[in-house]
Write a structure and sequence with these properties.
The chain has 20 helices and twelve strands. The protein is globular and about 75 Å long. Bound molecules: S-adenosylmethionine.
């Protein structure tokens, strides 16, 4: 059983996420390093924190059924500890005596002696049923209220359930699988940056080559920074979907020059690093642009030419680039696996606010492309307003652009038709990737 300092670390991350709006992915790794929590203990802490936050909506419904007052009246620190205990009981196969005993200890150490009896009583009640048993008790009937069931059983806010259901279109029967995939920890996937590292090198370091991206290798676990190619910046950690959309842009057929590439929304630089390596192999050059200076600085570690500019008011001449990537700021509803707290923080109104920016960024990116040049419009969201809506709106007001067929540019990928002909939509439950959307547009 991991020592209590592991659960103490998990509790402290939950506190930072709740009190300071911190991001799990930014807070957890340095905290584990600072407390010298490594190996299996680090993996346990990561699953404890991420799983607890992802499923918070469900765990709160379970706890509400076992507490005799509204959860809002429970001390927030005690509630965090109860959520951690509930995740261990219902999803981590920690024996009841260990999950309950360590949570009661945690409450005593972090909050005080008084609420420890309460925590003990509540968790003993939670331990009476398994996860499925609790879902049957606290979620609406899936037959009569499928979206209400999905909201509670898979712990997603209602508006997210509705947006994802809509984005599945005529495959709405996959909703449960999609939402369940959002609750799984994503595999750690590496990219072998072309010309700098090889897939064979990463396989020799213990990874498994993927059949979808020709540069992707998945790791069985452990710390990716321990792989020498990653430590040296020749390889990186990158979702396979991100690799696929970047290579699709690089592989699109092009007549004429192929030397000037642009990434208009480059920070923190994952796709820019891959595109820069591919451009360099062909004797070309990538210009990476990013609005926020601190994110532009991150891009610089892997890309030589980086500028801090607003992609809606570009500093480059129109009609000059052969290939352009617009990886637009988006709701991120396709990457919920990776950002445990994101689903609870975002609002439906965020999408409405993003769409005009996405349209303008795509418009300016099309201006930047030369006649015959190709533009990839990418989101890590499958929400139709951000994908189909943006592309259709921009196509409707321009007569110098057409939509290319992107599907043949992802030869290892099947069953990924997007919401407009020729577009691609990847899915966590079908492809094991983030739900990346890709449209390839061509200037003429
Ligand atoms: C989805 S992220 C890009 C991720 C990046 N391509 C990668 O693979 O690492 C979108 C980025 O667009 C940037 N951004 C937002 N508005 C922008 C604008 N008007 N011009 C340029 N970049 C912008 C955000 O700061 C953010 O870094």
């Amino acid at each position: 059983m991991p020592a209590d300092r592991v659960r103490g670390a998990a509790y402290d991350v939950l506190t930072a996420v709740r009190e300071q709006d911190a991001y799990t992915n930014l807070v957890l790794p340095p905290l584990l390093r600072a407390r010298q929590i490594t190996g299996r203990d680090a993996a346990f802490a990561t699953e404890l924190v991420s799983g607890t936050i992802r499923r918070q909506g469900l765990y709160d419904a379970v706890l509400a059924a076992n507490v005799d007052r509204p959860l809002a009246k429970v001390d927030p620190g005690v509630l965090d500890a109860l959520r951690l205990g509930t995740h261990q009981l219902l999803a981590m196969r920690v024996p009841t005596h260990a999950a309950v005993g360590t949570t009661v200890d945690l409450v005593r150490r972090k909050v005080g002696h008084r609420p420890s009896g309460f925590a003990n009583a509540v968790l003993r009640k939670v331990a009476r049923h398994d996860l499925d048993g609790w879902v049957r008790r606290v979620a609406p009937d899936p037959g009569s209220d499928p979206l209400g069931y999905a909201e509670v059983a898979h712990a997603h806010p209602r508006w997210v359930v509705e947006a994802l259901a809509e984005s599945l279109g005529d495959r709405r029967d996959e909703l449960d699988a999609l939402l369940a995939a959002d609750n799984d920890a994503p595999r750690v996937t590496l990219v072998a940056r072309p010309g700098l590292a090889t897939v064979d090198e990463l396989v020799a370091a213990g990874g498994t080559a993927s059949r979808q991206s020709r540069y992707a290798v998945t790791l069985p676990g452990g710390d990716p920074a321990a792989v020498p190619a990653v430590a040296e910046g020749r390889a990186g950690v990158q979702d396979e979907g991100s690799q696929l959309v970047a290579t699709a842009l690089a592989d699109a057929a092009l007549d004429g020059t192929d030397a000037r590439w642009l990434d208009t929304c480059a920070g923190p630089g994952g796709k820019a690093a891959l595109l820069a390596a591919l451009a360099t192999e062909r004797g070309g050059l990538l210009l990476a642009a990013e609005l926020q200076h601190h994110r532009a600085v991150l891009v610089r570690s892997a890309v030589p030419r980086v500028v801090t500019v607003d992609g809606t008011r570009p500093a480059w001449r129109s009609g000059t680039f052969d290939r352009v990537m617009v990886d637009a700021p988006c709701s991120g509803l396709g990457a919920l696996r990776r950002r445990p707290e994101a689903r609870w923080r975002k609002q439906a109104a965020d999408v409405d606010g993003l769409v005009p920016l996405q349209e303008t960024l795509l418009d300016r990116a099309l201006d930047a492309a030369r006649p015959g040049g190709v533009v990839a419009y990418v989101t890590c969201s499958p929400v139709l307003a951000e994908t189909r809506g943006v592309v259709a709106a921009v196509l409707a007001r321009r007569d110098d652009v057409r939509l290319d067929d992107a599907a043949p540019l992802l030869p290892g990928v099947t069953d990924a038709a997007g919401p407009l002909p020729g577009t691609v939509q990847l899915w966590p439950h079908r492809h094991g990737t983030d739900a990346m959307f890709l449209a390839l547009l061509r200037r003429h």
